Fold these 2 entries.
Entry 1:
Amino acid sequence: MGETSTFLLLTAAATLAISGMLLCNRAVVRARAFARGFYFLSVALSLAALALVLAGTFGLPEGPAHSRLLRILLFRGWIVVGVGISTTLLLALSASTRVRVLASDALRAFLTSAYVVRGLCFSVSISFFCTEIGKLAHDAEMRQFFLQSGYAVWFMYFIMAAETAGAIGLFVPRMRLPAALGLIAVMAGAIATHARNHDPFSDSLEALHLLILLGCIVVIGLLRRTIAFRLAKDGREEPALNWPERSGTHS
């Protein structure tokens, strides 16, 4: 099975498994524990990926085992993307006036938890930091790639600065939406560049992975705002749904 097929299959499997787990759970305490656990797992996997990238930069031998482990960590074992897509889909269903997915208190506790978006943002931010480290470590190759793609060298450094600024912005609640939108444009451009160069689609998988997660961050934020407005209109305020999240909201 090719890299693209494997990526899509594992993404779909993770989404289905996590969606099933969330829908089957009926305990609010457990749902909140799931959300906190997801955040800390995202942090652990992201920092492990960063450590492995730094180790490779400083001369750690890069054999087949290293490459396989790095690929798993870069995609966070498909757990983060599975949670992102599952949360987005379930919130979209809950935003529909015809589908009352949020009728379950346990499911609502997970979907409205600030830990979920924080975990997604942390994972994406560290991914971009890993990318910038990789670009700096292979500066000559990256210059050549940009030149062969029809771009000026200065544009490469502009993209690196934009990615770094966006990654930092994801850590700031009030900057998350514009930061995510900016990074979506950059990732869409990266995929389009590979397509124009007739590169294998597998070369775009990391950009596609980040594009999906960034899309989830944006859509989750907008859906939470929509649901919060609907609840307020019905006389049932739900502060945890606000975008950006209020500081101190951990439910």
Note: DSSP finds ten helices and no strands in the chain.
Entry 2:
Amino acid sequence: MPPPRVSVIIPAHNEAQAIGLVLAEIPPGLVQEVIVVDNNSTDNTGAVARAAGATVLREPRPGYGYACLAGMAHAFGRPTSEQPDIVVFLDGDHSDYPEQLPELLAPLLAGAADMVIGSRALGERERGALLPQQRFGNWLATRLLRLRYGGNFTDLGPFRAILAPALRGLGMADTTYGWTVEMQIKAARQGLRTVEVPVRYRRRIGTSKVSGTVRGTIGAGYKILWTIYRYW
């Protein structure tokens, strides 16, 4: 039996300084395609990613969810024999450790899970990598998920892997900050086998579009809580 096809989707907005490092740290031989979605960048993010060997898509509508949906449309818009068996989501700011990809894939390849979340809460974090408002937001959101949906999560971490049939079955729709929590809500409601793997986390390169500004922090927090309420 041939090894499963793995596609990595990386949403990236103005990550020209970081994206090359991220792509260089993805373990060779595990991934068939790396899809970088240039999400309305005003720098040369796309050019840097293309030079590093990634498939680069342009999504002019700003929003994390828009970028993820564009990557999925590309991955699943080809003949069935060429579509991925597993889809990995990874941030383009160099805060995640791409070399931990085998650890996320292991439960899926063993048939023990349908979705794997890389938990920053369970792993080692560089000082200052997760700001207080991020830690509180994660705690509140995962507690609400547990109380309402029974999802035993500790984090809404962006580094995650999911079987392609399970991902298609979720019917993902959020276009902005609610993407990760929507995926976890729907996974819990559908009874997907979800496990968490501890992952390391470091300070990102550049300024965060979410936690780096008051507007971004409030906007992300509101959208996450609204998404939890909407599916309540």
Note: The longest strand covers residues 6-12.
